[in-house]
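For this section, I looked closely at a protein sequence along with its fold in token form, which I now present.
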Amino acid sequence: MVAGGAPADLVEGLCLPLPVVIICELLGVPEGDRRRFKEWSDAFLSVSAYSAEQVRDAHQSLDAYLAELIARRRAEPADDLLSALVRVTGQEGGLTEDELINLGVGLLIAGYETTASQLTNLSFTLLTHRELWERLVSEPGLLPVAIEELLRYVPLGSDTGMPRVAARDVELGGARIRAGETVVVARPAANRDEAVFGDAESIVIDRGDNPHLAFGHGIHHCLGAHLARLELQVAIGALLARFPALRLAVPESALQWKVGLSVRGLHGLPVTWTSDGS
């Protein structure tokens, strides 16, 4: 991105390629295949942006690709996560072949699209709340707690979440939910709960106790939460340190948000800086 000069698109220069490289390195996806996943991923996460046929084709294409890559790793194991999973496939209590393919697809899609979108979202939020950006430039030690607060404040999903079906009658928040009824849990609403978070509608960049649900909870807690946190801290920390006066290169109104997908994010985030990084 720097080599290309300002202005530049932060999505194409950092937010998208960083998570793609990391998850593909971990899984063992060859470098030449990595750009193919963007279109497949968008179809996987489609709410209305793609037709049912396009979603089905994307599933079939990615399943076929993973099956081929698994076969290669079975013949020639490497030092990567996919090879490790192949070794336990078929063992007692281990993965079946179909489970291995589904797990590989899930890790690949969830391992980069969510982080890429949220890295874009958090960067946009800081760049449009200049006082927060400048405080983190002057107090970089605040970055870990700042990331947690931004994760609480900035929702990743454009929908409310996955539906759950009550297994039995239950009383919740003064309402009776009967067995068999469908419940949609809105995690972003929980993250703005004034009973838990003081001044919940504001970004409190140095908030201490922060039990947000950005990564879910319990058995539904995000498998890659630790990796996502690290990527967000490293990437945003690098931007703050290298480009302390980084700013949007276009009016905020000119930015285009993704529509029809289950994740929020910008198609592009044009930014600019001076040659000395300021």
